[in-house]
Amino acid sequence: MDEYLPSLITLSGFVVPALLLLLLTRPLTPATLAYLMVIAALCLMGGFLFAAGTITVLELKATPIANSLLVLAGAVLSLMLRQAMKAREKTE
């Protein structure tokens, strides 16, 4: 099971934003669900970019679990940035 842990943590980089988006968005229509899954996938890509940038800039030689945690942190950060931009857009 330990060999799968980094993969599960990386996968949670999609699942966590998807669940948060589903909880925060109402009403849920099929088109909205598809849109939210695309946004969650983009958050995962943002997590990959965050992890790659951090590992490259800091020249980290970390364990796979640490790298996966960076992906998860980047995905959550991407979601927070998206929500902040959406809130800012509503106030204008």
From TrEMBL:
Residue stretches spanning the membrane: 6-24, 33-58, 64-81
Keywords: Membrane, Transmembrane, Transmembrane helix
UniProt protein name: Uncharacterized protein
Native source species: Marinobacterium alkalitolerans
